[in-house]
TrEMBL record:
The chain crosses the membrane at residues 47-75, 87-115, 135-161, 182-203, 209-230, 242-264. CDD domains: TM_PBP2 (cd06261). It is found in: Cell membrane. It comes from the Bacteria. Belongs to the binding-protein-dependent transport system permease family. CysTW subfamily. It is a multi-pass membrane protein. Keywords: Cell membrane, Membrane, Transmembrane, Transmembrane helix, Transport. This is ABC transporter.
Length: 273
């Protein structure tokens, strides 16, 4: 445990403590509340926070829904064993595929001159860009995020589905219950903490993502990680103190969602035990 503890202290506890201190420091190093006041009073920063929350919420809910359906199919859908192995392997890879490579892949596929756009336009006469679709908007970024959100949901919800005991379904049938009764009164109440916790995990995962959004949209969609980058490293919006305050706000939001996820996961594990 010693290497893990050292890693946690150096790369988690110490940076978080520095954020907490420097978020209340002025340009001259003195204590100030101006950074926190600007955090809530700057319209562009408030808008960036809400934009990140909206994108994270939409992709978390959609990723949880479709990821659950895929996980249900491979665990309880009586599919061949090789299908499950292939899906889980792909999910493990896709859940970690993000950043510039993922953005380039979608630009080359769904961009204005991408492969799908070319095929639809030249083979079928459909120009979905003229119909209003734009990869570099809220909708486009949400679709890109779903590429790693759905596989992550598959990975975290499969163990919960495997924890559903066959005896519970048999007991429901013996007592005269239908399949609908089993899911309504047994399966869904047992799975609900895991499903909600997994959704919160997806929310935190999307909330902190920056490389994919920055490579895809640049500054067109100023989600809060891009706003943070602009405050600390930008040439125009260069206010490190405000940047530390933004980072502290992000830490608070992700800590709340991650803490709720851990609590819900521990609650759901009681049924498995």
């Amino acid at each position: 445990m010693l290497p893990f503890a050292a890693f946690s202290v150096l790369f988690l506890i110490v940076p978080t403590a520095l954020l907490l201190v420097r978020a209340f420091e002025g340009p001259d190093g003195s204590f100030t509340l101006n950074n926190i006041v600007d955090l809530f009073g700057n319209p562009s920063i408030v808008h960036s926070f809400w934009l990140s929350i909206e994108i994270s919420f939409v992709t978390a809910v959609a990723g949880a829904f479709f990821g659950f359906l895929i996980a249900y199919a491979i665990v309880l859908g009586n599919l061949p064993g090789w299908v499950r192995g292939a899906v889980m392997t792909f999910a493990g890879v896709a859940s970690n595929f993000a950043g510039v490579p993922l953005s380039f892949a979608f630009i080359a596929t769904l961009g204005r001159v991408g492969l799908v756009a070319f095929i639809l336009r030249d083979w079928f006469g459909i120009n979905f860009n003229a119909l209003g679709f734009n990869l570099y908007t809220f909708l486009g970024l949400s679709i890109v995020y779903l590429y790693f959100q759905i596989p992550l949901m598959v990975l975290v919800i499969v163990p919960a589905l495997e924890g559903l005991k066959r005896e519970w379904r048999e007991a429901t049938a013996v007592l005269g219950g239908t399949t609908f009764d089993y899911w309504r009164y047994v399966a869904i109440p047992v799975l609900w903490p895991s499903m909600l916790g997994s959704t919160l995990l997806l929310f935190a995962n999307a909330f902190g993502a920056i490389a994919t959004a920055y490579a895809l949209t640049g500054s067109a969609l100023t989600i809060i990680p891009i706003q943070l980058y602009a405050q600390i490293r930008g040439d125009v919006l260069n206010n490190p103190g405000l940047g530390y305050a933004i980072a502290l706000g992000m830490v608070v939001i992700t800590s709340i969602t991650s803490g709720a996820y851990i609590w819900l996961r521990n609650w759901s594990e009681r049924w498995v035990r």
